[in-house]
Structure formats: structure tokens, C-alpha cells
Design goal:
The chain is an alpha/beta fold. Helix content is 45%, strand content 12%. It has one domain (7-29, 72-204).
Amino acid sequence: MVSHFVLAWLALLHDPRIATAIIVIGCPDYVRLMTDRAAKSKLPSWTDGQGREFLGSKDFPRSLVEAVERYDPAGLLMGELDTVTGDDYIHPPSEAEITRLRPLMREHLGGKRILCLSGGKDKLVPYACGDPFLHFLKSAIDEKKGWFNDRGTRLEDVVDKEAGHEYSAKMSHVAVKWISDLLAEDSQEGALGTGKSAGSRTSKM
């Protein structure tokens, strides 16, 4: 069963009709989220092999691993990186990796505008689980150095430091302003006939 905490990301990536999304308490990395929960729950499939046997176990069967690799944001995109070291997302991808990644990024995230809202004290969906993918995406679309900054993909990543697993008043305020700003921007661009620019923002409240 796929957690509803990743469904917004799945819809954004795989439904071409969705160009703009606000993701509240969502996680773009299902493997990290479930392994975090397995460790905290001390599942035998985690503790027996100190985590090494969890993927492919009865709690996270091979069929689910394969589905994650095809559909999950981190599985689909970061899965194209040549090495899996745990911090591979920090390093700029090679030319070969970029060659593989660009068509996938263009198909699944090209031109999409995303607002992520997370709680800094959320223990059920910890921000840390999604942070590697968000770091990877922010680096890709960085206005100055990004290797995918020419397709209009935009990401604003906002963490309410005092919020837990909740849609806080601060998150609501940010969402309303974000929508208002986009509507105003779209109206102006429609009048001027201009296009959208790529970029990313990170905020903590």
C-alpha cells in the first residue's frame, strides 16, 4: 500500500494535466520514509540485518521496490545516479547522468510549479526523509548553476519550524500568498505574453 503522504508527488509527476501543486506534509522519497519508520518501529526485517535486509523483505517486498523505482520521485530520478552512497545527491551529476536525467525531468517536472509545506517537528513524516530529493531538485533547477534551469520548473520549500504533523496557520498563510502571487503573475504574463522563469526558494518560519 502506498502512503497518502506520497500521493501528491505521484500525481504531480505522472499526470501531465497538473502543472501547479501545493504539497502539504508530503514526502518525495518513499524508501527513506518507510525505512525511517521501520527503524523507529524496530521491525524484525530491519533489526535482523541492521537495515540491510529491509528492502526486499516481506515488509517491503521486491515488487514494491520495483514500483518505487518506476514511480516514486526519488526512485525515478535519483535512481538514475550512477552511485548510491547515501550522499550522492549532494554531488553534481556527471554529464552521462544528466543525459539520462534531462528527458525524465522534462517529461515529469518540466514547467511545473511546486510549493512544499512541512512541519519542522513532524515525527510521522520527518522533513529529513524528503530533504535529499528536495536538495537534488533545488540543485537541478538553480537559476545560476542548475543543469535543468531552462524548463520553467519552480520549487518553494517552506518549513514551519514549530509545526508538527499538521497544516498550521503559518502554512495556510504561505499557501494563500503563494496562490495569490501566482495568479497575479499569470495574469501579468498573459497580458505581456511572457514565459515563466525557473527557480527555487527555501524558507523556514
